[in-house]
Specification:
The protein has 6 helices and 3 strands, in the order H-E-H-E-E-H-H-H-H. With 172 residues, it is mainly α. The chain folds into 2 domains: 2-74, no CATH class; 96-171. A 3-stranded antiparallel sheet has the order 1-2-3. Strand 2 and strand 3 form a beta hairpin.
């Protein structure tokens, strides 16, 4: 219905979009994480997966969605027609793909994951693979596996970590 009504005007407001508001219920594992606080409410424009808001209450989630929507609209970006959506855009993998061979070794040794079962981008970091308060435990594993100190890479960016390991490994 919102899609059909969207043809009657060109300047769409948040109220023109179909919205889903959900209460999120944490699993026992999610409740136990140290670093993350599960936000119990989510408001999302249906079919526009990138546009969502969160909050401790239903009203806070909707207000956050309004704020996110206003930022996009003020930025001059073209809005998708209500009832439709935008395609999902994946971040670049240009830098991390330079280190695919290293990543094949790194993932099981440091992260205890199979690299082929993960999708990482140039923006992926060590932080994406745990819920602890620091990366210290991974810094130790990297040191033990490669004898390279990456503790000064606060972002934990995997491309930077791989570059450091590769650079130190070839210079020794």
């Amino acid at each position: 219905m919102k899609y059909l009504l969207s043809f009657t005007k060109k300047d769409w407001q948040l109220s023109d979009y179909p919205i889903r508001i959900r209460r999120l219920r944490p699993s026992a594992a999610e409740s136990a994480t140290q670093r993350f606080k599960l936000i119990p409410w989510s408001a999302q424009i249906i079919n526009w997966w990138q546009m969502n808001g969160t909050g401790d209450t239903k009203d806070e989630a909707y207000a956050d969605l309004e704020s996110q929507f206003a930022k996009v609209k003020e930025g001059g970006e073209s809005l998708p027609r209500p009832g439709t959506g935008l395609p999902i855009e994946f971040a670049s993998r240009e830098r991390v793909s330079l280190y695919d061979d290293l990543a094949e070794d790194f993932f099981p040794r440091v992260l205890e994951k199979d690299y082929r079962e993960c999708w990482i981008s140039d923006q992926s970091s060590l932080w994406d693979f745990h819920g602890e308060l620091s990366n210290e435990h991974l810094h130790r594993r990297i040191w033990e596996a490669y004898r390279v100190d990456v503790s000064d890479i606060e972002s934990g960016n995997l491309a930077e970590v791989f570059e450091r390991i590769e650079t130190r490994s070839t210079s020794s």
